[in-house]
Design brief:
Order of helices and strands of chain A: HEEEHEHEHHHEEEHEEHEHHHEEEHEEH
Radius of gyration of chain A: 23 Å
Oligomer: homodimer
Number of domains of chain A: 2
Distance between the termini of chain A: 44 Å
Chain lengths: ~425, ~425
């Protein structure tokens, strides 16, 4: 090998090594085909623009206008240090039903969390300004902020843009709105559904931002879903709270809980389908099924954009003492750094799954555990399965989407949770670069 | 630059990058001066040898002989999938006081966990053999195994070595025993104390293995502490259980819980100091203080050998609703991947500490939180402190030993927990190398 060849070889090695320890521009788990085209929802319009809250080269604020008569439901982070916007939204949702129109204004680049009384003040200023310009009572104006924590929100920059946002409202601008609220997301996340209730067409459109339960500077999960279904507020809230448990509350990237997590659903009632007033009617069940599909898709997309993720992992727990117990076991496995690193290393380390069950604190009997990787029976009766061949496990772990199933064998409880692996890129994103 | 210079430069860059992403041979946090010389404890002898359980080039089995009349206490993993040895030790400790001598036999290289009924059989075979050779009743023979999970323990290899171990017992061989039970540890961990009770000299000697709550293949924490103090078994167990809460139960590397964690204390009563029969006597309080020092040292050494650790982090929680609540908050912070990666990146990201408090689920009031990094007041009254300068925080984070203090401002509860940072080396150890 001459000097030039040697230099070329060394440069190639360096490039490979650097790429291995760099954060990818777009998650390798991003859905193919990009952002799903969302259906137009009657009574809903979107706008986005750049206010320069922190980013200067992109949209960072978005507005959703929802027609008079809309029902609004929401679920929020359980953090005891939740942000000013979250507290304000929760307070307003407690006011219950109203026929007034609704506005939702969200910024990225600053989370307005842990900003003391300044935080409340910023929320009030923004809500009052939206109220004045749009002619919507301020108790029907909801906000969210996502980005760096502990810095004062420059709310004047946002307020200056409300006129423009209001002027540019458009029923086709959902994707722009979805992009405006991204922070460390590597792709915009959308999901929609067009279906019929009693033969009349209805639509659901939703988008989410989030790169795990937590991202640098706590810029975490926000989700907005709109529909033209007519539905009572209390029924919508009941449905949302229940579906949330099995979707957004069943995902984890790194076990950390944001101060800003917000999920809101607005139903305008502008479709011609008859009003849902009971969560157990046939129409309601149909709506629940489709809303669930949208929420499953969005929540899985958040996991697929988990910081540094290279594997999407579905964890199915069966035979637990209760559903709640199953979920605790599932999250114990999903949050285990040792299981997540094994997935990253494509190591069929079923012993770590046994450990995850054991550490959950939930009822379990070592000798009744059964574990599958995909369809491969790995362990049963308290020991490795006689039919298990390590080569099969090794081959299975090469898949991008993994499924671990654990049957505890002691009851009827079940749960499914979704997570991703823990890789060098997670460390790169959270430790190597200063915030 | 000529070709040779260019090649040299590229090779240097490659070497730097490779070193950055390799596991260190010895933790940078290892105590200077190596393994502390332990005092000789009357009534205790140790031996170690190589049985080839898995490793072939080192000692992997050790024996401790404790004189007749010894009191034995123990605490063990709470995992519901705990190993056969742990279950056997727990059962035997419930038998209470006895005047028979005691033997403790421990192997590394195989954890004998999740091995079904074979596991119980191996433990029984080993205990019976030790009992026969040493003339000790088998209910006073305790075992532990640490290493790979789910593989049958080749107990015959261990049993073959018991004669030799018994012959070689020596009061000066504690360090050999400490080394024989290491798995992924990068240094042996010992701590001892020589002091007086009512003017009469007594000794404590202890050693531990563990590279975090969990290591590859669940080869986790084992701790053995011996003393010549005379003390009733029930008093020793009470003291141990209490001290354990503030030492080994207050450390975390990665939030994962082992199937094998065992901590045993044996008191031979061979010193001339009078017997402790009450946990609140002056002698007991003196003994508690010294035993606590040994346990603090050993538990901190485990954290300092945490997989990939480059920072030792003490988290002090004050002003919580209760001590238990304070500990939950402390562990929520200590287990947060985002806080651990911030420490690795030397980022004074106090917002992530706020997040950690918020996610703990414990009572907290955002506007009453006070946070210090070392002596630097970082945040108070729900916002960054007016006196805080980012440059000070940046300089502080360069330290190897970090201290984060959080005053919740709502009660009198307090707790201290110890952890380490989360680095590329953790990923290297747990994902890059196949087990």
């Amino acid at each position: 090998m001459n000097a030039d060849q040697k230099i070329a070889k060394l440069e190639a090695e360096l490039a490979t090594l650097r790429a291995q320890y760099s954060a990818p521009a777009v998650s390798p788990l991003a859905p193919r085909g990009g952002f799903q085209k969302l259906p137009v929802v009657k009574g809903i319009r979107f706008a986005a623009t750049g206010a320069g809250v922190k980013y200067t080269d992109r949209d960072d604020v978005m507005l959703i206008e929802c027609a008079a008569g809309s029902s609004v439901a929401g679920v929020f982070t359980q953090s005891s240090t939740r942000s000013a916007s979250v507290l304000d939204c929760q307070k307003k949702l407690l006011l219950g039903t109203s026929n007034e129109p609704v506005a939702i204004l969200v910024n990225s680049g600053n989370s307005n969390a842990f900003t003391g009384f300044h935080g409340e003040n910023s929320v009030n200023e923004i809500c009052n300004s939206v109220s004045n310009i749009m002619g919507i009572t301020s108790s029907r104006v909801f906000t969210a902020s996502t980005g760096v924590i502990g810095e004062l929100l420059p709310h004047d920059r946002i307020i200056e843009k409300i006129e423009e946002l209001n002027t540019n409202l458009d029923e086709n601008s959902a994707e722009d709105a979805a992009r405006a609220i991204m922070t460390t997301d590597t792709f915009a996340k959308g999901a929609g559904s067009s279906f019929s209730l009693n033969g009349l067409p209805v639509k659901i459109a939703g988008f989410a931002k989030g790169s795990g339960m937590i991202s640098p500077d706590m810029a975490t999960m926000l989700v907005y879903i709109v529909t033209d279904v007519a539905i009572d507020q209390s029924v919508l809230q009941l449905i949302l709270s229940n579906l949330n448990e099995k979707t957004f509350n069943s995902i984890t990237v790194d076990s950390d809980t944001s101060t800003s997590d917000s999920l809101m659903v607005v139903a305008t009632g502008k479709s011609r389908a008859s009003r849902i007033t009971n969560a157990f009617s046939n129409d309601a069940l149909e709506f629940i099924e489709k809303l669930n599909e949208v929420m499953v898709s969005l929540s899985q997309q958040v996991v697929r954009d988990g910081e540094g993720a290279t594997k999407f992992i579905e964890i199915i727990i069966k035979g637990a003492a209760s559903n709640a117990s199953a979920k605790t076991v599932g999250l114990a496995i999903a949050n285990s750094p040792l299981i997540k690193t094994a997935a990253a290393g494509e190591d069929p380390n079923w012993g770590r799954v046994v450990m995850g069950v054991g550490k959950s604190g939930e009822p379990a009997d070592r000798d009744k555990l059964t574990i599958w990787f995909g369809d491969i029976l790995v362990a049963k009766d308290g020991w490795v399965s006689p039919s298990y061949a390590e080569q099969e496990g090794l081959a299975y772990m090469k898949n991008t989407d993994l499924q671990f199933t654990v049957d505890l064998g002691i009851g009827d409880g079940s749960a499914t949770v979704w997570t991703c692996d823990l890789t060098h890129q997670y460390i790169v994103i959270n430790a190597d670069y200063r915030s």
